[in-house]
């Protein structure tokens, strides 16, 4: 692999996750299938819990907003008690989650439920976050050079912290100065990078954003953020 030096003037590194710090295969072949295969079981086990009900409520709200979309799956309110009514609502939630995932949607409602499911999987050792072998050495070099390192992913902040907290490299959360997800804005919109810069107290032109998605890189550059497309992490020369 070649060496791509960090441009002069960069004070903060902003990292994408999927395809940048973590193999795409891990997300596509481990994390997402875990949700599809276990969402019904998870809902049944946690249905009465407040957190689960908040997740369902957010999914129901999203379903209402999606009502005009082709194939959208509504989530009804429970109109009574009994196993049959519960079965009807859980089935609707499962079908809605599967529909959103089939379209690779990145709604906050879906990401929140996924994050909570992954939390349980990581904590029990069913899942470990995969990290490219050059990630930790590169981040350590950046930090030694006085740069701060942040994550910006479409996955929720909670999901990010789980991946790096229960990773194949151990708990590496201490290497990051902060985390951002789509609550600050979509990754394909330039305004999101301006908000991140304001949040961390840094000019956009002092940030280097690393991603494997051209549209994200273009949006960052529109905000005067330096962006680099990389299948691996560039290292300090």
Topology:
Elements: E1 12-15, H1 24-46, H2 50-65, H3 83-102, H4 108-123, H5 135-144, E2 148-152, H6 157-165, E3 178-180, H7 190-200, E4 207-211, H8 214-222, E5 226-229
Parallel strand pairs: 1-2, 1-4, 2-3, 4-5
Helix pairs in contact: 1-3, 2-4, 4-6, 7-8
How would you portray this structure in words?
This protein is of the alpha/beta class. Helix 4 (108-123) packs parallel to helix 6 and helix 7 crosses helix 8. It has helices at 24-46, 50-65, 83-102, 108-123, 135-144, 157-165, 190-200, 214-222, and strands spanning 12-15, 148-152, 178-180, 207-211, 226-229. The chain has a five-stranded parallel sheet with strand order 3-2-1-4-5, with helices on both faces. The chain folds into two domains: 12-22 and 129-229, HAD superfamily/HAD-like (Rossmann fold); 28-123, Transcription Termination Factor Rho, Rna-binding Domain, Chain A, Domain 1 (Orthogonal Bundle), CATH 1.10.720.60. The two termini are 13 Å apart. Helix content is 48%, strand content 9%. The chain contains eight helices and five strands; from the N terminus they run E-H-H-H-H-H-E-H-E-H-E-H-E. Strand 4 (207-211), helix 8 and strand 5 (226-229) form a beta-alpha-beta unit. InterPro entries: Enolase-ppase_E1, ENOPH1_eukaryotes, HAD-like_sf, HAD-SF_hydro_IA, HAD_sf. Belongs to the HAD-like hydrolase superfamily. MasA/MtnC family. Its cofactor is Mg(2+). Keywords: Amino-acid biosynthesis, Cytoplasm, Hydrolase, Magnesium, Metal-binding, Methionine biosynthesis, Nucleus. Substrate binds at residues 153-154, 187.
């Amino acid at each position: 692999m070649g060496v791509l030096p960090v441009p002069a003037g960069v004070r903060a590194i902003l990292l994408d996750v999927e395809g940048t710090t973590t193999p795409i295969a891990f997300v596509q072949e481990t994390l997402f299938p875990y949700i599809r295969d276990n969402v019904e079981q998870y809902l049944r086990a946690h249905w009465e819990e407040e957190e689960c009900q908040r997740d369902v409520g957010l999914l129901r709200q999203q379903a209402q907003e999606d009502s005009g979309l082709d194939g959208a799956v509504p989530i009804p309110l429970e109109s009574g008690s009994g196993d049959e009514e519960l079965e009807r609502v859980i089935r609707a939630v499962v079908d809605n989650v599967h529909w959103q995932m089939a379209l690779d949607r990145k709604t906050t409602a879906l990401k929140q439920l996924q994050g909570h499911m992954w939390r349980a999987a990581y904590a029990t050792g069913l899942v470990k976050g995969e990290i490219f072998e050059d990630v930790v050495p590169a981040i350590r070099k950046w930090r030694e050079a006085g740069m701060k390192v942040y994550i910006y992913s479409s996955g929720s902040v909670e999901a990010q912290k789980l991946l790096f907290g229960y990773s194949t490299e151990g708990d590496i959360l201490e290497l990051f100065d902060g985390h951002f997800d789509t609550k600050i804005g979509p990754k394909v919109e330039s305004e999101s990078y301006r908000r991140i810069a304001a949040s961390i107290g840094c000019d956009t032109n002092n940030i280097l954003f690393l991603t494997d998605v051209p549209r994200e890189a273009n949006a960052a550059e529109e905000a005067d953020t330096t962006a680099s497309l990389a299948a691996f992490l560039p290292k300090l020369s």
